[in-house]
Amino acid sequence: LRMAVAAAVCAAGARAELIQTAREGRAFICLTGQLSRLELKSKLRHLVEPLRSSFKSVDIAMILSAGDPSFTNRETIQAKAHGPYSSFQNAESALEGVTKNRLARVFVPPGMPQHDERYLAQLDKPGPRSFRARRATSHVRQWAMQSECLSAMYELERREAPAEYSLVARFREDVYFPAPVNVSALRSNAEQGRLSVCKCESHYGVNDKGAFVPRKHAPTYFSALLTEYYLWPVRTVGNANSTIRNPETFLQAVLQQHKLPVEHVEPSVMSPMPTRLNSTSSDSFCIK
Questions:
Q1: For residue 182, how far is the Cα from the chain centroid?
Q2: pTM of the model as a whole
Q3: For residue 281, what are the CA distances in angstroms to 22, 277, 288?
């Protein structure tokens, strides 16, 4: 009997040690967009929980603008906001018990940004210049929010210094996850220095709904879009061989410019779906 008890105790200890080993490292998630369109339910269940089972800690930052929901694309102009959060305090309180290190930051959009006319001219959706300018303004604001993820990452990372994050992610506030992400595949890509993006909704470029990023590439991924658009447009927008027609192809051009390798993963690995895909939508999404 003593031997059986001792064996059971050793086995339990070994299992505990295995679980602890499996949960090494830290992960960081940054959500960007509008508070009024924030969706958290599926993200907590199918994004955060799988990460918590693999990482020792998962920190979350939210960079969101306040106010009524705003939509630029015509197919989503009549869409209803999915976010049930009336204040930043309510949104942050939804993360209590989920993560110890978190922050919610109000993003104040700049005034009407100056645009590169070449970018406006190349946008693929028809319409007057005013419509294309609204689209471009929305793109710039998204890139500005994404750039603020970098300072948020550094701030939360310092709370448990010197341990850096092992994996970093950024997703739009209104996407939802119909199934759990495959952390093993995402972690493997990151360890090999590759970004992970969903192969769906790429629109001839790279899906811009979000990505998993190796920590070493996080500064470039978060800040390069805004930097390239304003400081080095000749390398992307103004390139003679430019095929930029939307934010997805601009993202592709920027990642290529900075030599960041990208893995276009199957929906079974991760599938952040846009909210416009509802029962009345004529669009399709390659989820399997």
A1: 15
A2: 0.86
A3: 41, 6, 18
